[in-house]
């Protein structure tokens, strides 16, 4: 690792100022992606700002019709929530126990791995990402591979998830890492149906044809005959683009069947 | 000053510790090299194998993916702190009784994860145990005896006969 200094601000106001004077400051959450990147020198910050203990980022609040989760809440903590089974199941499927004990919701979203599990639920539920300076809708948040709408120094504070009438997440897990080869999140809310896919493209995306079919008839049968083009999908040593396109259809149907 | 050593205060196996530590130091390196607690093994150094698993405030984490300063003010438990003197912890007894170790390289990490699991799991469901052990690799014993040992530990905690 290249040298950096380390700050642990005691308040949110202090955290937002903590980057001053550094050329490339970075927030540090669970470190489950960042520490690995530091070792590989893929990231070379000159200052780390540990945000995991800020009370504003550690809250879990129930508001009418929605669940608000602080950015520094861990995957393991989310796996234990009973508010939305689909979100808890998704969180419990990430990586392994040790990764879930350290890794956080905000870190996963800011990192924006193309196979991020959380991205599927944030997009599938139409959540809002609340930062120190604005509210970003899920549809505007994920821009590309490891790329989000966050500006330099922008801190994710909490995520507001609308609670669905029915939802489920289905994924084919890479047996070594736990990352989804493909994951599909399906949600039926009071207003609409949302279908979000992760692992298949540069970043999580929605499938409007699937959403329209499910809006007419919320059943796995309604998806029969819908095809997904492999053209823009990922191909790597784990799966071809054609196989991923096939999985999207299979997993969407599984999620609809499992939705509760 | 960039990269200069910083004071770190934490508890390791119940003992308060204060040291000057560079921000780039991994928790695994701090435990092994500074404190000499070499029971925490270093296998892959990339977060894959789980040999370096320790507890941070009672929860299993991979110490090669944690900076020492992330443990500031926290309680760290390593394999050296699990037994009470010569008396093995029930999870360790289960590993011994089930022959859940062969070369022993993965064992400290396995036991630390098993301790977290034994605390979390309601029942000794095999699928749940296998899912819980997903972050720990064993290259020689085979997982059968390890899963059986964790199942014994879960049942033992519930007061059931293994
Ligand atoms: C072995 C292993 C298996 C894994 N398997 C999976 C998996 O199956 N599915 C999956 O989705 N992920 C997986 N991950 C990744 C894991 O979910 C990470 O926890 C997550 O990607 C990053 O979260 P973190 O809290 O550790 O963030 P960090 O690593 O601390 O930070 C990641 C990035 O986010 C930034 N950041 C952190 N918090 C904030 C914030 N509040 N505001 C703005 N920026 C912020 C940091 O500056 C950094 O750039 C795995 C990781 C490992 C090591
Ligand atoms: S040494 Fe830490 S996970 Fe392998
Ligand atoms: S006992 Fe040898 S690696 Fe597990």
Number of strands of chain A: 14
Secondary-structure element order of chain A, as H and E? EHEHEEEHHHHHEEHEEEEEEEHH
Share of residues in strands of chain A = 15-25%
Bound molecules: flavin-adenine dinucleotide, FE2/S2 (inorganic) cluster
CATH architecture of the largest domain in chain B: Roll
SSE class of chain B: alpha+beta
Question: What's the level 1 CATH class of the largest domain in chain B?
Answer: Alpha Beta
Mean pLDDT score of chain B, rounded?
Answer: 95
Q: Termini separation of chain A (Å)?
A: 46 Å
* Number of H/I helices of chain A: 10
Q: Strand order of the main beta sheet of chain A, please?
A: 4-5-10-6-7
Largest sheet of chain A: 5 strands, antiparallel
In helices, the fraction of residues of chain B equals: 25-40%
Structure classification of chain A: alpha+beta
CATH homologous superfamily identity of the domain at 166-259 in chain A: CO dehydrogenase flavoprotein, C-terminal domain
Strand content of chain B: 15-25%
CATH class of the domain at 166-259 in chain A: Alpha Beta
As for the CATH topology of the domain at 166-259 in chain A, it is Enolase-like, domain 1
Poorly predicted ranges of chain A (pLDDT <50, ≥5 residues)?
none
Keywords:
heterodimer; A: 260 residues; alpha+beta; Uridine Diphospho-n-acetylenolpyruvylglucosamine Reductase, domain 2; Enolase-like, domain 1; four-stranded antiparallel beta sheet; B: 162 residues; Ubiquitin-like (UB roll); DNA polymerase, domain 1; 2 domains; five-stranded mixed beta sheet; binds flavin-adenine dinucleotide; binds FE2/S2 (inorganic) cluster
């Amino acid at each position: 690792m290249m040298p950096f200094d380390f700050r642990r601000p005691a308040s949110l106001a202090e955290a937002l100022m903590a980057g001053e004077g550094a050329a490339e400051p970075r927030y540090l959450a669970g470190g489950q992606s960042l520490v690995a990147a530091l070792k590989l020198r893929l990231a070379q910050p000159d200052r780390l700002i540990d945000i995991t203990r800020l009370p504003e980022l550690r809250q879990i609040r129930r508001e009418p019709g929605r669940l608000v989760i602080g950015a520094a809440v861990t995957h393991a903590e989310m796996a234990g929530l009973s508010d939305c089974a689909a979100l808890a199941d998704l969180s419990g499927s990430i990586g392994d126990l040790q990764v879930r004990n350290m890794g956080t919701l905000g870190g996963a979203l800011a990192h924006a791995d193309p196979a991020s599990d959380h991205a599927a639920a944030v997009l599938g539920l139409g959540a809002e990402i609340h930062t120190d300076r604005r509210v970003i809708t899920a549809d505007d948040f994920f821009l590309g591979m490891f790329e989000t709408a966050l500006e330099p120094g922008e801190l994710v504070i909490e995520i507001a998830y609308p609670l669905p009438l029915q939802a489920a997440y289905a994924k084919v897990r890479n047996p070594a890492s736990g990352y989804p080869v493909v994951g599909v999140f399906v949600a039926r809310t009071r207003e609409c149906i949302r279908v979000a896919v992760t692992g298949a493209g540069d970043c999580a995306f929605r499938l409007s044809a699937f959403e329209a079919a499910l809006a007419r008839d919320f059943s796995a049968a309604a998806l029969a005959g819908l095809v997904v083009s492999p053209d823009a999908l990922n191909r790597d040593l784990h799966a071809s683009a054609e196989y991923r396109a096939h999985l999207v259809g299979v997993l969407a149907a599984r999620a609809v069947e499992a939705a509760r | 000053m960039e990269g200069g050593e910083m004071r770190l205060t934490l508890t390791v196996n119940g003992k308060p510790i204060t040291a000057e530590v560079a921000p780039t130091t991994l928790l695994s390196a701090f435990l092994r090299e500074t404190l000499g607690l070499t029971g925490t093994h270093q296998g892959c150094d990339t977060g894959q194998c789980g040999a370096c698993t320790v507890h941070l405030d009672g929860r299993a984490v991979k110490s090669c993916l944690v900076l020492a300063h992330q443990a500031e003010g926290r309680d760290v438990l390593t394999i050296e702190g699990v037994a009470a003197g010569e008396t093995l912890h029930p999870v360790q007894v289960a590993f011994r009784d089930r022959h859940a170790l062969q070369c022993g390289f993965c064992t400290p990490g396995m036991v630390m994860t098993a301790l977290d699991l034994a605390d979390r799991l309601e029942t000794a469901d095999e699928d749940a145990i296998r899912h819980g052990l997903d972050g720990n690799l064993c290259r020689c014993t085979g997982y059968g005896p390890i899963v059986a040992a964790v199942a014994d530990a879960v049942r033992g905690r519930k007061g059931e006969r293994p």
